[in-house]
UniProtKB/TrEMBL annotation:
<keyword id="KW-0227">DNA damage</keyword>
<keyword id="KW-0238">DNA-binding</keyword>
<dbReference type="GO" id="GO:0009338">
    <property type="term" value="C:exodeoxyribonuclease V complex"/>
</dbReference>
<keyword id="KW-0378">Hydrolase</keyword>
<keyword id="KW-0067">ATP-binding</keyword>
<keyword id="KW-0269">Exonuclease</keyword>
<dbReference type="GO" id="GO:0003677">
    <property type="term" value="F:DNA binding"/>
</dbReference>
<keyword id="KW-0547">Nucleotide-binding</keyword>
<keyword id="KW-0347">Helicase</keyword>
<dbReference type="GO" id="GO:0004386">
    <property type="term" value="F:helicase activity"/>
</dbReference>
<protein>
    <submittedName>
        <fullName>Exodeoxyribonuclease V gamma chain</fullName>
        <ecNumber>3.1.11.5</ecNumber>
    </submittedName>
</protein>
<dbReference type="InterPro" id="IPR011335">
    <property type="entry name" value="Restrct_endonuc-II-like"/>
</dbReference>
<dbReference type="InterPro" id="IPR041500">
    <property type="entry name" value="RecC_C"/>
</dbReference>
<dbReference type="GO" id="GO:0008854">
    <property type="term" value="F:exodeoxyribonuclease V activity"/>
</dbReference>
<dbReference type="Pfam" id="PF17946">
    <property type="entry name" value="RecC_C"/>
</dbReference>
<dbReference type="Pfam" id="PF04257">
    <property type="entry name" value="Exonuc_V_gamma"/>
</dbReference>
<keyword id="KW-0540">Nuclease</keyword>
């Protein structure tokens, strides 16, 4: 018998299944197998059954394909039913390409195959992607065209019967299938399914070859072949099929024929114009219902149809209190025509447009806080945030949730992506290192890999050390390239070259002439780093990247990964479990069909991603956490609150790709797969899985401020509401983007929610006394220059966007000038007694070429002249000092390098004098002045266009320098724990104006807000937006007396030192 259970509530189905298992439990020694659409739903189902029955049974959750193969094995024990899996077919196709090329029918693939053969059978990205596309098509044929596979199996490779109902440009496909048959030892499982369906009545003792009962939890994912197979089995055993359905008779509702109509009144006319929600989103589900009904009718199946639809409106005594969400769910069940009632308090459905992604995520964050604080019965685990593509939300997760200053705690979340896994951190490192190894090594790439938390855990360093080593590599002369191989024999300015310089600097003094090495030792003033440790780290990274470069066979690639994993395990035992698991996955993925062809690194990286993802690295705990996921994995899991974000046409639904080679397109069969309709139906599934609040959002503009359209099914939904609701009701649920309003949240519902998200809502001015002896000068300088960035980095909070500089290649930009002058000064060395002669003798044209600066020929002379004038100006500024020497000043763990001329510190900046440069020079002056009483001032030499100028900073004196430095250290230690509530550049202008008896508030406002036409204000910087909110008003700072005092403590001494 076929027991068909249909319900709109998954909780009802889980209770039915739990009760069934309680009444008819499986034998104690028998493992219970349940068919589920995906792992995440299966895991939820397992938990519900365990809670209901108060016992954890031995459940095994399987997909319909895996479960069917295991059943077939009972009928054919000697046959490997999984032989025709995706990997076997894929590698079998690659191994068959050369042979396929010998058939004239292969002409549509001739260009790809010739490329493969011409490249000595190297698997590049084009070949690999083509193979995956063909493999996916063949998988479709096995599931949805078994009769065609049966025909191909019946005839020989040279038979014209193979090409029945095919066009000439499709003849290669049955030929390729026959070639695969030679390589894969068994027939496809679909052929054995057909055999069982035809001969089941002839098989003796069927009941002993299959379980007494079969449990299939389906979400319309069964093919016609599966339905036929299990329908036939239901004639001998009990098959329980559980279906989640929004309502009954969807096919007739969506596909009703229009006959002759008469309009007796206006109401009838308006009802005709109204569509229904299932017609917008429900075609996929309707087709599946029809497929089952037809099969049951034609096969004469003994059916027990159990319709258990739960009325979501029964718990409300007053119709006016029924939320719109429940009314819609009720209409989906029974197709009623009752008019919707929407009260002013009804927020059960919201359709919200936002100006851009930033405003959408700010709304999301604030709305979550509002709901948690205003709804006592809603916990974090009752909320789901779903997106059509999780890569759209993943970069924002930390920004949205990981900020402890909001509401006093982080918002806990549980993230799964499209491949249903929470990645192992070592796996992430492998993916990153393989990506970097396939590209040109630049400073940005090194910065990227070192910024990853897993890299920091492997090699035991922090984000501050990372920033210092990146700066150190720049100073050591790193341009690009791993070694001389990447730069075609040129070793200079590569990572390998810099490592050697730093290594020699640890052994020899910089002054030592090491002609045998053909490079100078490098040592820098910032020695707070453990350079011995960092040389080892850089050598390891260089070794890994070099080890991964090239083309190798699959088995060689696996050996290389295992070598890297072993190296990591040897240095850090904390990753042993993860490494063992990855090794196991790599071993299990190896199959005999994988050829020894060479595989490009980028292709192997894709294979690695695929095989790890299939292993499902799931996080096991979701205790009171918000679920963040793609739609596909989580569409059935019930939640009280569901946020469906990024519903723009570019994301949802996925438009069908024009796959002309897929033979399913020759003729449509009921039940054929449709990604387009499947994605639309997922919206309906989410709608019935929601219990309290269903919030749909999309954005009006992308990150480049280009117009984006809302998804057209959502447009149709809006049109549905337009025709079903009056204007007042419409405005309650459909919120349009409005630039004059900060957000569309009911602020009165939560005192915590503000119109603009920020990390700092209230300023905490309380300070504690700290031990001021133990500190890092490099960290103090970094904090003093950019206190908000320092705090964000320390707390591992990433900005929502980054600035990327792209210098124009047609001329020598200011950036290039600055870099070039820095390299020249590094080569000649400012404390060299022959520096003026060296500067005059430099060949500028050679320097431009050496540093990779290429210009149009007619501008070479002009640009060379500009650089020459700059050097003459620099030489003139330095010549005012008779003797310039380099010294090192050390105190505890701090050691700084200084250039000294008599009683003056020389700071050379090959760029304009910025606030950052000025404050760094100031802190360094305080440090040396507190230790060496003879130092009177710092002379900052800086560049303005094509000329050098100087700025004097007077030393406050030894004792005063020490007091100021101690105060700075205490402030630093206080406000490295909490974010400094002072924007540095605006506060500096404020104090400067006050000391000069000018309008300090105007000075602050001008710097903070800026001028919209000519220049941005400090509040437009990313870190300021994150810490203080978007467009924070000046009164937030100026209205507080503590702001005035702390600003003066920080910047008053510097400004006075400049004005002496």
């Amino acid at each position: 018998m076929l027991n068909l259970y249909k319900s709109n509530k998954i909780e009802v189905i889980s209770e039915l299944l739990a009760e069934e298992l309680k009444i008819c439990p499986p034998p104690i020694n028998e493992k219970l197998e349940i068919v589920v659409p995906n792992y995440f739903l299966g895991n939820w189902l397992r938990e519900q059954i365990t809670i209901k029955n108060k016992i954890s049974a031995l459940y095994e959750l399987k997909t319909i394909s895996t479960y069917t193969e295991s059943l077939l094995t009972n009928f054919f024990p000697a046959i490997d039913m999984s032989a025709w899996n995706f990997e076997s077919i894929k590698w079998g196709i690659i191994d068959s390409l050369e042979e396929l090329n010998s058939f004239k029918e292969s002409f549509p693939l001739r260009n790809w195959i010739n490329k493969y053969l011409d490249n000595k059978k190297t698997i590049d990205g084009d070949i690999y992607n083509l193979t995956k596309k063909i493999t996916n098509n063949f998988i479709d044929y096995l599931i949805f065209r078994p009769e065609m596979i049966s025909q191909w199996n019946r005839y020989e490779i040279n038979s014209s019967n193979l090409f029945k109902n095919l066009n000439s440009d499709q003849f290669w496909q049955p030929i390729l299938y026959k070639l695969l048959e030679e390589k894969i030892s068994e027939k496809p499982s679909c052929l054995y399914m057909i055999e069982v369906i035809k001969n089941l009545r002839k098989i003796k003792k069927v009941q002993f070859q299959v379980p007494n009962q079969i449990y299939i939890f389906s979400d319309n994912n069964l093919s016609k072949l599966h339905i036929n197979f299990y329908s036939e089995l239901s004639k001998f055993i009990k098959v329980n099929l559980y279906l989640i359905s929004p309502g009954e008779d969807l096919w007739n509702r969506i596909n009703c024929l229009e006959g002759e109509l008469e309009f007796d009144d206006n109401k009838s006319k308006s009802n005709l114009n109204n569509t229904n929600i299932e017609r917008i989103f429900g075609k996929f589900g309707a087709n599946f219902q029809k497929l089952i009904d037809e099969n049951i009718y034609t096969e004469g199946i003994n059916l027990k149809n159990n319709l258990i639809y739960f009325d979501p409106t029964t718990n409300f005594h007053n119709k006016k209190d029924i939320p719109l969400l429940n009314q819609i769910q009720k209409r989906l069940i029974d197709n009623n025509s009752v008019d919707f009632i929407v009260s002013e308090r009804d927020d059960s459905i919201l359709l919200c447009e936002h100006f851009n992604h930033n405003s959408q995520f700010e709304y999301l964050r604030n709305k979550i806080i509002e709901i948690i604080n205003s709804c006592e019965n809603i916990k974090y685990s009752d909320i789901a945030v779903l997106s059509p593509q999780t890569n759209l939300i993943k970069p924002y997760l930390r920004y949205i949730f990981n900020n402890e200053l909001i509401n006093g705690e982080k918002i806990p979340y549980f993230f799964i992506d499209e491949d249903n896994h929470d990645s192992s951190s070592i796996y992430e490192f492998l993916i990153d290192i393989t990506e970097i190894a396939s590209e040109k090594i630049t400073l940005e790439k090194i910065d990227y890999i070192l910024s990853k938390k897993v890299t920091q855990n492997i090699f035991d360093f922090n984000i501050t050390e990372k920033d210092e080593i990146i700066f150190l590599l720049t100073q050591a002369g790193f341009h690009w390239g791993l070694d001389d191989k990447e730069r075609l024999g040129e070793e200079k300015n590569t990572l390998d070259w810099c490592i050697k310089r730093i290594t020699l600097g640890l052994i020899y003094d910089k002054e030592v002439n090491l002609s045998t090495f053909n490079l100078k030792p490098f040592s820098y003033k910032n020695i707070s780093l453990d350079l011995n440790k960092w040389v080892k780290i850089l050598i390891h990274l260089k070794k890994y990247i070099n080890f991964l470069r090239g083309s190798f066979s699959y088995s060689n690639w696996v050996e290389k990964l295992k070598f890297i994993l072993k190296s990591i395990a040897n240095s850090n035992a904390n990753f042993n479990l993860e490494i063992s698991e990855i090794n196991r996955i790599l071993d299990n993925h190896a199959i005999p069909l994988i050829p020894d062809d060479l595989i490009l690194l980028k292709v192997f990286r894709e294979i690695l991603i695929s095989c790890i993802n299939k292993a499902k690295y799931q996080s096991k705990s979701r205790i009171n956490k918000i679920l963040v996921s793609d739609i596909e994995n989580s569409r059935h899991i019930p939640h009280k609150v569901i946020f469906l974000i990024d519903m723009n046409s570019v994301n949802y639904p996925k438009l069908p790709k024009s796959e002309n080679i897929n033979l399913l397109k020759n003729k449509y069969h009921l039940g054929d797969p449709s990604v387009f309709e499947r994605e639309k139906y997922a919206f309906l599934e989410l709608l019935i899985a929601c219990r309290d609040k269903f919030i749909v959002t999309w954005v009006k503009n992308d990150k480049d401020n280009k117009k984006l359209d809302v998804s057209f099914p959502i447009k149709e939904l809006i049109s549905f509401f337009d025709s079903s609701l009056n204007q007042g009701q419409r405005e309650l649920i459909i919120k349009d983007s409005d630039l004059n309003k900060n957000e569309i949240i009911d602020i009165d519902k939560s005192k915590i929610v503000k119109s603009n998200y920020s990390l700092i809502e209230d300023i905490n001015w309380n300070e504690k006394k700290f031990d001021i002896k133990n500190y890092k000068l490099s960290e103090l300088i970094y904090w003093f220059k950019t206190p908000q960035k320092y705090w964000l980095n320390k707390n591992d909070i990433s900005p929502k966007e980054i600035f990327i500089h792209h210098p124009d290649e047609e001329y020598v930009s200011n950036l290039q000038k600055s870099q070039l002058i820095s390299k020249i000064i590094q080569q000649v060395e400012i404390d060299n007694h022959n520096i003026f002669d060296d500067l005059n003798e430099l060949n500028i044209n050679d320097q431009l070429a050496e540093n990779g600066i290429i210009m149009p020929k007619n501008s070479t002379f002009t640009k060379e002249k500009e650089i020459k004038e700059l050097l003459i100006s620099l030489s003139a500024s330095l010549s005012k000092h008779k003797e310039i020497n380099k010294i090192y000043v050390k105190l505890n763990a701090n050691k700084e390098e200084y250039i000294i001329a008599d009683d003056t510190v020389i700071e050379l900046i090959n760029a304009k004098l910025s606030f950052s440069h000025l404050t760094e020079a100031w802190i360094k002056l305080l440090f040396i002045s507190s230790l060496k009483r003879n130092i009177k001032k710092t002379k900052v030499i800086f560049r303005t266009e094509n000329n050098y100028k100087s700025q004097i900073i007077q030393s406050p004196g030894g004792s005063e320098s020490n007091l100021i430095l101690e105060d700075y250290i205490n402030i630093f230690k206080n406000y490295s724990e909490k974010c400094l509530p002072i924007p540095p550049e605006s506060a500096y202008k404020y104090v400067e104006a006050k000391i000069k008896s000018k309008n300090e508030k105007k000075a602050f406002i001008d710097k903070w807000i800026g001028n919209k036409i000519f220049f941005k204000g400090e509040r437009d910087n990313i870190e300021m937006k994150m810490c203080f909110g978007n467009e924070r008003e000046p009164d937030f700072f100026l209205g507080n007396n503590n702001f005035d005092k702390l600003s003066y403590r920080l910047y008053g001494p510097l400004i006075k030192a400049l004005n002496k």
